[in-house]
TrEMBL record:
GO annotation, biological process: methylation; protein repair
Keyword Transferase included in the entry's annotation: yes
InterPro entries, sorted: PCMT, SAM-dependent_MTases_sf
Originating species: Chitinimonas arctica
Listed name of the protein: Protein-L-isoaspartate O-methyltransferase
Function per UniProt: Catalyzes the methyl esterification of L-isoaspartyl residues in peptides and proteins that result from spontaneous decomposition of normal L-aspartyl and L-asparaginyl residues. It plays a role in the repair and/or degradation of damaged proteins.
C-alpha cells in the first residue's frame, strides 16, 4: 500500500519532464488525490503499449492493446482510482478487465492486494509478463468472467470495472465490503460513470459524468 514502494527507475522510464506534464494535466483536469497523482507519475505507461505507439504513451488518449481492446486514457484511470481510494479501507480491490495491466499496476501501489479478472487469455498472459518484469507481487490475476467476480476472495473494499456492462452485476454487489465502493461505467452507446457505496443498511448509487468504454462481454475467450 505504501506509495512508491515500487521503484521503476531501472526500466528505461521516460524523462521526469514527460511524467511531470502528465501529472500537471491530471491536476488541471481535477484529480486531487496526491497519492494517486504520485502513483500516476511513477508508473511507466509506455511499457504497456506496443513499441510503435510508445511515443504516445503519456498523451491523454486511449490506445489499442490488441484484440479490439484499449488501454484506458490516463485521466479516466486517475478518476476511477481516486474514487476507489476513498473507500473505508484499502485492503483488497477487484479490477474487472485487466487488459494490458496498466491500471492493475496503478492499483497495486495504492491497495494491499489487487485481484484482477480478464476474459481474454491472450491479454492476460501479456499482462502477467509485464507485472513480473516490474516485480509486482501483490496482484492476483485470473482468467475469468467479471460478471461472476471472485466470491472466494470477497469482500472487496473497492471494485473497478474497466469495461461497461448494461446492467449492474448482482454478484459484484454481493462481493462489495461494507464501507466499500464500486466504480463502473454503464450503458451501451450512451454510457455514464457511476459509483455505488455500500453502507450497513443500503447501497447508495450516484451518477457521474459521461464516459466511453469497451463493452463488458460475457464468457471467456
Ligand atoms: N484497465 C485496462 C482496460 C482494458 S479494456 C487497461 O488499462 O488496459 C477492458 C478490458 O475488459 C478488456 O481487456 C476486455 O477484454 C475486458 N473485459 C470485457 N468484459 C469482461 C468480462 N466480462 N470479464 C473480464 N474482463 C472483461
Amino acid at each position: 500500500m505504501a506509495e512508491m514502494k515500487h521503484d521503476f527507475s531501472g526500466i528505461g522510464m521516460t524523462s521526469a519532464r514527460t511524467r511531470g506534464r502528465l501529472v500537471e494535466r491530471l491536476r488541471q483536469q481535477g484529480i486531487r488525490s496526491e497519492a494517486v497523482l504520485a502513483v500516476m507519475g511513477n508508473t511507466p505507461r509506455h511499457i504497456f503499449v506496443d513499441e510503435a505507439l510508445s511515443h504516445r504513451a503519456y498523451d491523454d488518449v486511449s490506445l489499442p492493446i490488441g484484440l479490439g481492446q484499449t488501454i484506458s486514457q490516463p485521466y479516466i484511470v486517475a478518476r476511477m482510482v481516486e474514487l476507489a481510494v476513498g473507500a473505508a479501507r484499502r485492503d483488497k480491490v477487484l479490477e474487472i478487465g485487466t487488459g494490458c495491466g496498466y491500471q492493475t499496476v496503478v492499483l497495486a501501489q495504492l491497495f494491499k492486494t489487487v485481484y484482477s479478472v480478464e476474459r481474454l487469455a491472450q491479454l492476460l498472459d501479456k499482462a502477467r509478463t509485464r507485472l513480473r518484469e516490474l516485480r509486482i507481487s501483490n496482484t492476483r490475476l485470473r482468467h475469468g468472467d467479471g460478471f461472476v467476480g471472485i466470491a472466494e476472495a470477497a469482500p472487496f473494499d473497492a471494485i473497478i470495472m474497466a469495461a461497461a456492462p448494461t446492467y449492474v452485476p448482482e454478484a459484484l454487489l454481493a462481493q462489495l465490503a461494507i464501507g466499500g465502493r464500486m466504480i463502473f461505467p454503464i450503458g451501451n452507446v450512451d454510457q455514464e460513470l457511476r459509483i455505488i457505496e455500500r453502507t450497513e443498511e443500503a447501497y447508495i448509487e450516484t451518477k457521474l459524468e459521461k464516459v466511453r468504454f469497451v463493452p463488458m462481454l460475457p464468457g471467456l475467450a
